[in-house]
Every structure is written in structure tokens, then in C-alpha cells.
Amino acid sequence: MKGLMMQQPLLVSTLLTHAERHHGEREIVSKRVEGDIHRYRYRDLAQRARRMANALAGLGVLSGDRVATLAWNGYRHMELYYAVSGSGAVLHTLNPRLHLDQIVYMIEHAEDRILFFDVDLLPVVQAIAPRLTKPMVYVAMTDRTHVPPCDLPEPVLCYEDLIDACDDDFEWPDLDENDASSLCYTSGTTGNPKGVLYSHRSTVLHTFATALPDALSCSAWDTILPVVPMFHVNAWGLPYVACMVGAKLVFPGPWLKGESLYELIESEGVTMSAGVPTVWQGLLAYVNDHQHSFSSMRRTVIGGAPCPPAMIAEFQEVHCVDVLHAWGMTELSPLGTVCSLKPCQISMPPDERVAIQARQGRAVFGIDMKIVGDDGQEMPWDNASTGELMVRGQWVVDSYFGSAEAPVHRDGWFPTGDIAKIDSDGFMQITDRAKDVIKSGGEWISSIAIENVASQHPDVASAVCIGARHRKWDERPLLLIVKKPGSAVVGDELLAFFEGKVARWARPDAVVFIDSVPLGATGKVLKNRLRDQFQDYFLTA
Ligand code: AMP
């Protein structure tokens, strides 16, 4: 017997119509590329998104066409999130920090027809344009007075001219909820990037799950500042969540330095933010150097890379900002787990609580996870057994876009390439990315565990541990350290700091001081580059 309930497709456009109807007065504040602050409301967003949808139709964009953006976090980018996906086309967000070869590859592979860009990114657009083999329509995301002289093969359209030329009389089409809504390429360090094609259904379900109290806990009371870029897995879904719950949104544009972020957080009363650990390092350094405090921020979501326990403790104990450590992947839209505590853990002593929060946390409803050994057999949830993390769920990739390869899953589970353990309460902890595990004499050493200890040392600004080749043990851990300014700490002091904290055989053998840590296009540490640089350290030292 079938249920007798309405069949309403889950569509991205419904998030916007909900926000317009129920939260029309709520503000969206953007620090613009032009340098000023722009403010408007959800009702303006909805109206301008409809005008842009008409403009896209006028440009001949059809259902399923790919429309690319090369843009920072801002209100015009948000309009495109809804105008493009809502009208049935596919929003392809490009990361301007990637190597030009990769950007060209992605545009060609996706067969993008239109490229919207922030004007400060014109040099990137000019560098890639001559290499594109298909015609492209270029749109500068600004008004007529700010369109710079452009050296491009085709004339450049102006975003505000397109909006001005269209009215807002537009009905969002009744799409199939399984139609594609947006496209994001993985930022893999080897091989060509792979496209993950999200559907309206997967996006809306992901939005529900992300907003839940034990996930990111978002509501109409929040003012959300997504530092995570809108080109990094849809800013972890926050542009959708904000519409669903009616939160005030604050966009930082390209200004992601500590001082700029802090000023915006304070002036706009931000309650919640989200980003990768390296961004928070900059913010914390600025706040500490200037002896500032946070007057409104209550919590921050940290993910994309392991969050060191020292950072969690500093946010919580010094600044009274709760940390929500989250794990996800482009292939998961991206949210998989969030480390929100259970009631029995709240009264734990702070250091025990922080040790739990340094784990990547519990699966949100909709994501099923398990760990498997080399033989593919499931491993127990005993907080000791480690294996490859496998996931499945409604917003997990099934196959990559435009790939002739079979579905990417194994027996219905997506192999994440992360090595993890899970405790009996279901708290998952990533012990390493499979390729970062240090294999020493047949034993596996977690580089993250070593980095977590090192980053608790008061003289350490950043710590990275890699496996360097070793004649006897195959690989041994080498610790690369960026010191805090003015520190005179020496390597032996740092090695002694591991006494009693990590098993003797798993401690790093040596410390090398480096000036800075190389970061990739999404702010994650480029361990590959450090491995290339230091892989012979123990052979030649
Ligand atoms: P991306 O698809 O570029 O977002 O990268 C996904 C990968 O980032 C995951 O497979 C993990 O290796 C890593 N990652 C994401 N979040 C975390 C986290 N909280 N802790 C450790 N690694 C993470």
C-alpha cells in the first residue's frame, strides 16, 4: 500500500521562495570586491535572482547547461546560486586559487558556456581565455562604472546591466528533483580533478541535515559568516542553510585576513562562522596580538582539515567560542560528521572534552559510515581498530561527472581514502589521509596525532608531520615546525615535549624549522610538496 501524501519535489528554488516569504526582512551583508559594504534583504535577493534567471534565459541558457563562476563570497554570487540552479541550469563554481591548467581543464571538461567573474579576478580570466577551445560568454560581476578594460576574445557583459534589463516576473520551473543543480571538482593533488554533480534533491536533503541542532545548529537567530569560500563545496552548504532557516548572512568577499574578519564579526554581530583551520590561525593571532575578544560569536565550525586540539581549547577557554569540528568531502556535498557532544560528555574536565572534540565526530542523519580493513571486512567500533572510512547516503557521489569509469563506490559504499577509528559512542576520528600515513617498520603512525601534540607547544605556530624515507624502517616521522615570532625553541625541546604523550616508537625522529607551510587552493596543507622537499632527509642527514 502506498502512502497518500503530496509529492513535492525537493528543489533549490524552494529554499529561496521560503526565505522571501518568511524571512524577507532578514539582511545579507557583503564586503564587496569594490571595497565597500553592501546591504540588502532576502526579498531583494529573491527579486534579483528572478531577474538574473530572466537574463540567463535571454542569453540562451537551457536546462542542464553549465554556468561557471570565478568569484568570492558575496551577494551576487549568492544570486547566481539560485538563479542558475533554480532555472534548471548547473552552477559550476571554480576555485581561482587553483593552477591555471586545472581551471582550464575544469571549464573544458564541464563545457561551461558562461563565466561570471569578480573583477579582481580578471587577470585569471585573461590568462585562461586564450586557452579555451569553445566560445564563452564573459560577465563581470559589477556595475558599469566598475567594469575594467578587459583583454578578452569576446566582449564582456556587465552583471548589473543584465539585471537592469530584465524584470522579476519569473516562475521557478517545476524541475525533477534528481536534476543536476551544481558542480564542484575535487581538488585532488594527483591526476585530473573529478567533477561531483549535485542534484536538487541531494542539496536540499543536505541542507536539512546540516541545519539540525546536533549538526551545525543554525536558526533564524543566527548571523552566519561563511569564511569557507562559495567555490569550496558550495561554502559547505551555508548559502542554502541560511535561506532555509532565515539567518542573517555576512559575506567577507576576498578579505580573509584576521583583522578584516574580526572587524566584520564584531560590526555585524556574527554568531557563527565556518572555515578551515588555517584561516582561524590568522584570526586568533590577530585577536590575541590586539587583546581583543569576541562579543557576539558563539560557535565556529572548523573542518576541511584536522583541527588541532590546541585551537579548540584556545577558542573555548580563552574566547568562549564553541568549536564544532566537522568532517566532509566534495564527494559528500560536503557534510559527513560533526563533533557535537552528547549530554554525558558536557560535564567532563575541559581537557577530556577537548580530546573528544578533536575527533571528527558523529555521522549526521543521512550518512551511514563504517571502517574496513585491507581485506574489506568491517572493523569494530572500539576506538582502537583503524581502517578505511566508507560512507553511503543521499548526498554521497555515485559516479563522477563525465567519467567513463564505473560508479565510484564499492558494494554500495564510497571509499573516502581517509583512515579512521570509531569509538563505541559513534565518534569517528580521522587518523590520517591514506596517503599521509607514516609506515614505519610495518607499523602505521598517525601524522595527525603527532601534529596535534606539537601544536600544543606554546612556541609552535604550525606543525606538519610527514614520513621521510629511512634505510631501516622504510619511513620515519619528520616534524616540520613554523615557530611563533620571537621564539628561540630548539628541536630537542620539541622532541622532549612528546615524552609521555606518544608511544616512543611513534615519536618524530627529528625536527626541521621552516618559514611557512605551503597551502593548497582550499587552505589545506600541501603535504605532497613537503614530502618532495624532505623525503630524503634521513637518508642524507
Ligand atoms: P575536499 O574534498 O577537498 O574538501 O577534501 C576532503 C578531505 O579533506 C577528506 O577526505 C579529509 O581527508 C580531509 N578533511 C576534511 N575535513 C577534515 C577534518 N575535520 N579532519 C581531518 N581531515 C579532514
Automatic annotation (TrEMBL):
It comes from the Bacteria. Keywords: Fatty acid metabolism, Ligase, Lipid metabolism. Pfam families: AMP-binding, AMP-binding_C. Residues 18-401 form the AMP-dependent synthetase/ligase domain. Residues 450-524 form the AMP-binding enzyme C-terminal domain. GO terms for molecular function: ligase activity. InterPro entries: AMP-bd_C, AMP-bd_C_sf, AMP-binding_CS, AMP-dep_synth/lig_dom, ANL_N_sf. Belongs to the ATP-dependent AMP-binding enzyme family. PANTHER family: ACYL-ACTIVATING ENZYME, BUTANOATE--COA LIGASE AAE1-RELATED. This is Long-chain-fatty-acid--CoA ligase. It comes from Paraburkholderia solitsugae.
